Amino acid sequence: MAFEQFLDPVTLPAHLAGAAIAIGNFDGVHRGHLAVIDAAEALARGSQPGPHHRSRPAVALSFEPHPRSLFRPDEPLFRLTPPALKARLLQKAGLDALVTLTFDRALAGMTAEEFLEELVVRRLGAHAVAVGYDFHFGKDRRGTPEFLVQHGRALGLDIAIVAPTRESGEAVSSSAIRRALAAGDITRANRLLGHEWSVLGTVVHGEKRGRELGFPTANMALDPQCGLALGIYAVRAVIDGIVHAGVASFGRRPTFDNGPPLLETFVFDYAGDLYGKEIEVAFVGYIRGEQKFGSIEALVARMNEDSRIARQMTAQAAP
Length: 319
Prior knowledge:
single chain, six-stranded parallel sheet, six-stranded antiparallel sheet
């Protein structure tokens, strides 16, 4: 079955009726989210043997924009995975479909009972629901996990409440991953995620300084709320489905203009034209912080060293 996406308002088609639904924001699609997805897939399998023998479909139910942007609009939110990347990761997790509901005042005002009865049961035709231990829904967050077990089972739903996934004693969470990325701790962020954190964007024209220095870069303007630490990183660039190692700078270019943050990626051993192309850049490791150099010669020497380290990091880290 091909992966399908549905936007609000939606009533699932007949072939997805009776699905096991994993519900959450899924920002980052991290290891904790994957545990919820695994629980939904187990509910979809029922008594069927083996991980690939499901008697029912498994579907993710998510929300856009992120609920925090409605409840706390004055607090910028560093999104780990914008919608397009989130959909890719959910598809990779083995789900059959993604339903994205518009999170607005109307949805936020639904009671927990209405959310379950009208959305989950009537419109989506679910037979089972899996959520994380801290997931709440409905007006005033009355839809606790305990409420879901009691009310959901009364509606005939199979329910799975998934315990926290822990790393070094800390619950895996989107907030913990944001903190790791803000500190430049790519190793920890990727360990919490269970995959390499990545960004998706269109290559734009820059000042061509990299080309003049012998390091032509693919430049991408990331979301202004991106909280990644400024610095130099070992990366992998996915171009037309092919993975290439590279080195990237996310910063303000203090040696030159100290402008707004820009992601500049030097893709190793690649000579094609990337302008206007959408590429994905996955972060493998942190090399150093951004710094200002006293001469172009010193900058180029450091860029050569950064490239050497990045080649070594990407070769040693399994994608």
